[in-house]
Amino acid sequence: MAEQQITQGAIEAMFCDPARAAQFPVLVMQCLHIKTLENKGPGGPGAGRYRIVLSDIRNFVQCVLATQVNHVMHEGQLQRGSIVRVRQYQAQPVKGKNIVILLDLEVITSLGTLEKIGEPKSMEFTSTEQQTTAAAATATGGTSFYGAKPEPAQESKVEVQRQLASRTGGLGGGGGGGGGTSASTIYPIEAVSPYANKWTIKARVTSKSEIRTWHKASGPGKLFSVNLLDESGEIRATGFNNEVDQFYDMLHEGSVYFISTPCKVQLAKKQFSNLPNDYELMFDRDTVIEKADDQSSVPQVRYNFCNIQELQEVEKDATVDLVGVLKETNAVDQIVSKTTQKPYDKRELVLVDDTGYSVRVTIWGKTATEFDASPESIIAFKGMRVSDFGGRSLSLLSSGTMAIDPDIPEAHKLKGWYDASGRNNTFATHSNMSSVGAATGRSDEFKTVGQIKSENLGMDQPEYFMVKGTIVHIKHENFAYPACLSENCSKKVTDMGNGTWRCEKCNITHERPQWRYILSIDVSDHTGHAWLSCFDDTARVIMGMSADELTELNASSEASFNAAFDAANCRKLVFRCRAKMDTFGEQPRVRSQVMSVGPMDYKSEGNKLAELIKQMGPTPRLPIASTIRAQALSSSTAPSLPTSPLCDITDSLQMDQLASVLLDFPPAGGLADDERYHLAVKSHIHKVDKLAVTQNFNPAAAQLLDHVHPGVNSISHLRLLIAARAANSIPQADMLAKVSIFLSTFDARQIRYAGKAFSVVLDWLVSGSLFPASVAVELLTTALLRLDPTGSVLTSHHVALAKLAFTTDNVEPALPLLEKNIVFYPGAKGLQESRPLCGLDLPPAAYITTQSGLTSQLSSSDVLQYDLLRGLCFIQRRAWSQALDALERVITYPTKDNNSCSKIMVEAHNKWILVGLLLNGKTPALPAITSPGPQKAFTALGKPYQSIGKAFEDNTAEMLNAEFASVGAQFFSEENNLNLMRLVMQHYQRWQILNLRQIYTKISLEQIRKRTQSAETAAPLATEAEMEKLVHQMIDEGMLSGVIERPADGPAYLSFLAPDEELSEAEFAQKMSSTAQRLKALEPLVKATNERLGTSRDYVRFLVGQQKKEKDGRRDYELTFLNQVEDEDLMTGVVAGF
Q1: Are strands 59-65 and 121-122 parallel, antiparallel or unpaired?
Q2: Backbone φ/ψ region at 695: left (φ over 0), alpha (ψ -120 to 50), beta
Q3: Cα separation, 190 vs 206, whole angstroms
Q4: Which residue, 155, 186, 606, 779, shows the most beta carbons closer than 10 Å to its own?
Q5: pTM of the model
Q6: How far apart are CA 1027 and CA 1021, in angstroms?
Q7: 933 vs 576, 891, 969, CA distance in Å?
Q8: Cα torsion 547, 551, 556, 558: sign
């Protein structure tokens, strides 16, 4: 069956006959091989690229997955032998080979995975004609590009290679390191990423900025940027300082260039770029740039037009492209910046289009002064920012472009419309929008917390919203920072240790700082909770005092300090927020910042609710059981019922019977003791089980859900959820909301008795059938912590959560659970309880068991895999201390005999060594409790890592570099440790700098440069400026406690600051309070462990023996109970997995 569906001959058509290939809208092929490409970028684990081999039975070809289809790998859909549909691709020859970039791919899961079909042969070039045809192949089904001029004859491969080869001594900088063979790979811009090693792009400069300069305390600087375009997309490139002198005059707008590595690829800074690309380029002194002979094969410009009428739907500060007819041109005007006092030229234009709307456009600088377009010209703008001033207006960004009377279809269409009828039309404006939300200038929509998360606000662009919520927690730690006292400066100042504070920006010293808030608050509503960030203005409203006043309280009275936070808690307020994608530790995340905050207007809210009730009035809802019964008894005729499948009295009475059973637990008066509660809940479950098998239960579940409270009648609500989903009687959006509310509000005491049904709902989250991964991870974390607030018992759901969080790159929502320490395992000895499951003082390990259904049976591999995944999650966040602890749990896992060792343990051990080097600058020592079998395996299989650790500690950078080279990058790549290994190489020099603090309190940057070496180059850094940049990075990341000082009459030097252990009295008190809270949280775990050990004969014998030795003065303090216990007794309840 699969063989008949495959598009035979498709690969040959791609390269030799594109016209024939275009006849196949979708190509079906088989995947023969999958390989992860070497990850050299900062993306971290799981962020790599993938190469696969596809076959059409006749031929096979190498392919590269574009980043937008990497999800088929991350989700485990694409496997060796899978049958796939290729919907969009780009075929091109690279270094004599045929390569296909897959832009849209779908796995046909129904066909499964098969053995290789047929005997396909490699698709190679057979003639110069085929080469030329291959070069001309374009992305089938792809996006069209405006302004691309047809090329009469494509460059042959020989010509391209000749141009690339000539670049070794061409116009690039340095030694022309990007030329030759390494630069002969022509990449589309879409494929350029931090994970590609050597590449060349052929792109047109669509925009070139002016040179911008700055003057800071660290010295002057300058930069420029260009926007680059090819058939696949756009990317921004920036040059700093020396690269400005090197490349600025070389690059011209509208010209096509070859640009080759070395050229740094990094995450795009969206605040400076309007291009739809996640990455941007940074020119290097050795970057190779050469003008292409052929200037016509690359598109002129790429537009994504929005018409003028649609601007009212576009959010403020969004970036758009627009084409319109020039209706009015105003004279050049000049404004003066309030902050810099610099003058700026501007000109205002009025554009119209065929939607009947007009808009005001502002252009700036040289574009404004040199503007000479005549009225009624067609103008296309790329990169304009949307403002809500006067309703809607536009401003051309510095990175934007303007084309007058462009040769594109949209321009011709507008010209025809304007000449035919538009010239005499009247045009509407967006000015009526300005009255909406007068206080803020925008109409921000109210959102619930659940909507904020489910709609992924802020993921693509900044979004504003209003939310009504209650503050449930305010973080006490780092609530404020010391800021500069100068006007219009709020930069952080540095404590110089002599009673003064220095601002690097203003280059002045103050006797004291002004403390400013950086508050994190947890806001909750009925749909969930979310963390919001508050800066000084909004935090003052919340706290009711300035940050200076709160800091004084912190230093003088802990009770008053805590009381200030308690007073701010539990207040219901209205927050106006902005959700925006931010980058922290090279990991993108959405941050919601409070822009303004105010009290709830209860009168207005009451009126809104009353209006909603009126609107809902004409649509009667199903009465609850007691209402139906009262109507039936008080009337001689049947009560008026909703028009629905249950509209007759018989069906209503059936609904009454269902509701009466579902709502009878818990009883209104409550239950006096645990034993009565236990009997009542068991009886209730029995009744609900009998109801669930009746024919009326599933059809009625959707209506009954609205009347069974998820937090009060949790067992009933849970069974109704499962029934409603089985009947498919609730729209997807409503089901999502109901599941979210249930998992955030359920009664954990009741759910102890409904573990199997509860596990079914949790499995929905893991399967991805209901929620996107980011929401599923957060809900799963919330549910598990609600069930067990201590997070001390490992369950099968923990393992699934860790796997989902890591593989989908949604680690942050899972951290509240992943950071908990596992103490117990289901079924462990000594945890069985005779008391009822509902006991409020019952330890979690007593009710989270396989018998209760709240977890499946765990194997040894599950336990190891969970801690390994925890370690990988912490590695991804560069939380080295937590990662080391998690990996250490894996390598110290007890084994059955002296010869067994899991492969997972070996993998964890190797990562553990590298993490130890990053955290402590030395190889960690194996804990004494490590079993003999794993110790032997680690010694035998971890030699490459042990040799790296030894070279890191004992030898020079040259020796470490040589050790890495002798092992080989390929080895570390195959073990998925290449990124960690590269971080170790980078941190070698950092630890050299840190070790200098043992000798010096102050040392010049030039001396640091001479005394330390980079393990990557086995040589010192080239300049003092590079060393200063490295030291600044270490200080910013918190790795180094120090400050760089620049005296007027001497060289710059680094001062190592006093260690953190020299705490002030207030800081010491705060630390002690935090320690006391942690000890209090450990109290129930210690109590449960003591109870468990108290029933162990082995432990009692151990204590008796230790007491006898202590009387005789022979006690061995290094001998612990753990050393004397048989390995297999340690993990009872866990099935052996290796």
Answers
A1: parallel
A2: alpha
A3: 16
A4: 779
A5: 0.46
A6: 7
A7: 59, 11, 29
A8: positive
